TrEMBL record:
Protein name per Swiss-Prot or TrEMBL: PhoD-like phosphatase metallophosphatase domain-containing protein
Database matches in InterPro entries: PhoD-like_MPP, PhoD-like_sf, Phospholipid_Metab_Enz
A family per Pfam: PhoD
Highest taxon above the source species: Bacteria
Ranges where the PhoD-like phosphatase metallophosphatase domain occurs: 1-62
Organism in which the protein naturally occurs: Streptomyces thioluteus
Length: 63
């Protein structure tokens, strides 16, 4: 799968302009700006069962 969108969002939880609802609570909740913030947010995304199933089913390139 070739993924052309954003993999993670930097916005504070619930602040993304186009979001009508929050799929998962962001960790950390504040806007991410440091490497540690990015690692925490990325790790949180990786706990999503649907994303895990996608990565299990298909090779994925995020560009």
């Amino acid at each position: 799968m070739l993924h052309l969108g954003d993999y993670i969002y930097e916005y504070r939880s619930g602040e993304y302009p186009a979001a009508k609802y929050v799929v998962r609570k962001h960790e950390p909740e504040h806007e991410i700006v440091t490497l540690a913030d990015y690692r925490d947010r990325h790790g949180r995304y990786k706990t999503d069962p649907d994303l895990q199933a996608l990565h299990h089913a298909l090779p994925m390139v995020a560009i």
